[in-house]
Amino acid sequence: MANGWTPERRARAAEQIHRWRPWEKSTGPKTPEGKRRSAMRGYKGAVRPKLRGLARALREQEQMLERIGSDSRL
Q1: Which of 3, 24, 43, 50 has a CA positioned 20 to 30 A from the CA of residue 58?
Q2: DSSP code at position 32
Q3: Torsion sign (Cα): 48, 53, 59, 62
Q4: Within 10 A of 38 (CB to CB), how many other CB atoms are there?
Q5: d(C-alpha 67, C-alpha 74), whole Å
Q6: What's phi and psi for 7, nearest 5 deg?
Q7: What is the Cα 24 distance to its own chain's centre?
Q8: Can you tell me the distance from the alpha carbon of 33 to that of 22, in angstroms, rounded to the nearest whole number?
Q9: Cα–Cα distance measured from residue 12 to residue 8, given in angstroms and rounded to the nearest whole number
């Protein structure tokens, strides 16, 4: 095989992993601080809501400038 994993090596690794059973030893965070940090791993910073707010503010500013421009022409 191209990656060096022969069927024999794959079978041997699978047998060792089944004997080792790492999924039974995995515990995850225990402390509230560890749980908080773990929960935040998927947080990406909420960029999209900030961009929506910015777009809304720019639209409102553009509308206000259009109103001011049309009022000054009268």
Answers
A1: 43
A2: H
A3: negative
A4: 11
A5: 11
A6: -55, -35
A7: 27
A8: 24
A9: 6
